[in-house]
């Protein structure tokens, strides 16, 4: 069903029916809302958008999906949809369209900085309240995975070939170094003549979106149970 949804979005983009706002945000917003809904139903919690959340360096982060609704954030979700077919606004694009990996370098850097900034601020708050935060060692990735808020990243990528798929997987693994886990769903056109008819692509087990959704659900369930104690 998700693939059919992506086909519908991209068919409208390729035909010119979708406007620039749809092109920039349509698939991403849909994917974001879908992941949030799945986790809410699985964990029995309500997830929230929160603005002006302070980091250690940046005073205001706008976060689409968080838990809980107030106080210090314990869970953060980042969902990204990348890759587009050729459309009237990109007449010079290749027939298969823009690769899924084209924008991931920038996206992963943004995710990494946001995660580090928020986790450092959480550590500062914990220290100011008399708690002993996780000590920073030479392994930044290990420290990040031991520190709140828990950050899960989900990526839906339209890829245009094996090399593009490999690059997307590489960027997902890089995102996994600065977040708690990354779930990846990749799909590609069935042929150059059918650029908006898709088939799903296999990814490494540790990135499979179903596995990571289950892990995120377990994390949220534990956070909910701890708040009710």
In brief:
By secondary structure, the chain is an alpha/beta fold. The chain is built from six helices and six strands.
Protein described:
The protein is an alpha/beta fold and 229 residues long. The chain has one domain (2-228). 46% of the residues lie in helices and 21% in strands. It has helices at residues 2-15, 20-43, 104-128, 140-146, 162-177, 209-228; strands spanning 48-53, 61-67, 75-82, 150-158, 181-191, 194-201. The mean pLDDT is 90.
Pick out its properties.
single chain; about 230 residues; alpha/beta; 6-stranded mixed β-sheet; 6 helices; elongated
Q: State the share of residues found in helices, binned by percent.
A: 40-55%
> Ends: how far apart?
38 Å
Tell me, what's the shape? elongated
Oligomer: single chain
Main-sheet strand order equals 1-2-3-4-5-6
Main β sheet profile: 6 strands, mixed
Return the string of H and E elements.
HHEEEHHEHEEH
Our count of helices gives: 6
Backbone CA Rg: 19 Å
Poorly predicted tracts of residues: none
- Secondary structural class: alpha/beta
Number of strands: 6
> Beta fraction of the residues?
15-25%
Q: Quote the average pLDDT.
A: 90
Number of domains: 1
Strand and helix layout:
Elements: H1 2-15, H2 20-43, E1 48-53, E2 61-67, E3 75-82, H3 104-128, H4 140-146, E4 150-158, H5 162-177, E5 181-191, E6 194-201, H6 209-228
Parallel strand pairs: 3-4, 4-5
Antiparallel strand pairs: 1-2, 2-3, 5-6
């Amino acid at each position: 069903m998700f693939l059919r949804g992506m086909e519908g979005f991209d068919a409208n983009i390729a035909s010119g029916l979708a406007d620039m706002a749809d092109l920039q945000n349509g698939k991403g917003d849909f994917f974001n809302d879908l992941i949030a809904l799945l986790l809410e139903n699985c964990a029995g919690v309500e997830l929230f958008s929160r603005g002006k959340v302070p980091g250690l360096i940046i005073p205001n982060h706008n976060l689409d999906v968080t838990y809980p609704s107030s106080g210090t954030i314990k869970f953060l979700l980042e969902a990204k949809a990348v890759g587009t077919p050729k459309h009237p606004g990109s007449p010079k694009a290749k027939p298969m369209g823009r690769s899924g990996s084209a924008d991931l370098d920038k996206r992963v850097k943004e995710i990494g900085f946001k995660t580090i900034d928020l986790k450092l601020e959480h550590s500062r708050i914990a220290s100011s309240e008399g708690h002993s935060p996780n000590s920073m060692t030479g392994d930044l990735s290990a420290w990040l995975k031991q520190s709140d808020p828990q950050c899960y990243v989900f990526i839906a990528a339209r890829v245009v070939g094996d090399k593009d798929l490999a690059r997307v997987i590489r960027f997902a693994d890089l995102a996994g170094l600065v977040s708690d886990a990354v779930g990846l769903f990749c799909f590609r056109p069935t042929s150059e003549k059918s650029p908006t008819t898709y088939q799903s692509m296999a990814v490494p087990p540790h990135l499979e979106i179903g596995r990571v959704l289950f892990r995120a659900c377990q994390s949220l369930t534990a956070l909910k149970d701890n708040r009710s104690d």
